[in-house]
Design goal:
With about 325 residues, the protein is α/β, with parallel strands linked by helices. It is about 45% helix and about 20% strand. Helix 6 runs parallel beside helix 7 and helix 8 packs across helix 9. Mean pLDDT is about 90; it is low at about 1-25.
Amino acid sequence: MTFTRRTVQTAAALALLGGLVAQPALAQEKPKVALIMKSLANEFFRTMEDGAKAHQKAHAKDYTLVTNGIKDETDTAAQIKMVEQMVAQKVQALVIAPADSKALVPAIKAAIDKGILVVNIDNQLDAAALKEKSITVPFVGPDNRAGARLVGDHLAKTLKSGDKVGIIEGVSTTFNAQQRTLGYQDAMKAAGITVVGVQSGQWEIDKGNTVAAGMLREHPDLKALLAGNDNMALGAVAAVKAAGKAGKVAVVGYDNISAIKPMLADGRVLATADQYGDKQAVFGIETVLKALAEKKKQADMPALIKTDVVLVTK
C-alpha cells in the first residue's frame, strides 16, 4: 500500500475520532453518587453536606457527587421526587437520610430495581416496610437510643427522684426520633424521674419553642426539657428564658451543632450528643463506593454498620 499525505491525514482523523468516541465510555467508569438529605435549613444537614463535598473533592478521581435536600423536614413528597429524579439521572448509588421511615421505601425499592445501590443514613428505614418490599438497605449510623441514654443519664445526675421532665420529640414517624425518645425514657425511668409528656417539635426551632412553652405553662414545676435534636433545644432555651426560668429548668439536646456550643459553655444547655454529622454522609458514601468496587448487589451488602455517638457537656 502506498501512503499518501491524504491517507495519513485520514488515518490521523480516524484515530482522533476513535479517541473522542472512547472518552465518554471512560468517563462513565467513574460512578455518580447521589446524596439526599432532610432539611438543609437544619445546621446538622448543612454540616453533613459540607463533609460529603470535602470528601468528594479529596477523591475527585473516584466518583462524582450530586447533593440535594428538602426545605421542610416533613416534606416527604418532595424527597420522593428527588429519589425519582436521581433514578432518571442514572446515578449508580444513592445515600439517603429519609424524612420518613416508611414513606420513602417504595421509591427506594424502585431505585434498587433499576440497579442503583442504596445506603440509608441518619434516620433508619422501617424494618417491616423493607421486608414487605423484599429489600434490604444497609443502615450506616449511630445507635440513637444509646446516644440519647448517655444524655439522659447525665441530666439525671442533676435531678432527684420524682422530679418532672418533658420530652420534645422529632418527627414522630421517624425511627431516629422514636429511638431518641426511648433513650431519654430509659434514663428517666432508671433514675425514678417522671416524664409528664412527649410532644413533637418536628425537629424545628420554632415548633420546639412552642412545645416547650406549652409544657412550661402546663407544668410550672417542670425541672428539665429533653429535646430530640439541638434545633429544638434552641427553641426550648428561648422558651425557658421567656418563662423567666433560666437556670431553673435544664435543657438537653442531640447533634452537637455549632449553634449549641456557646449554650453548653454558659450552662443554658446541659448536654448534647455528637454523632459526627460531618462524617455521616461520608460513611455512607464510602460504603457504596466499596460495594461498587467489589461489584456487590444490594442484597450482598451488610444490614448495619454502626458509627460512634458520644456525650458532649461543658
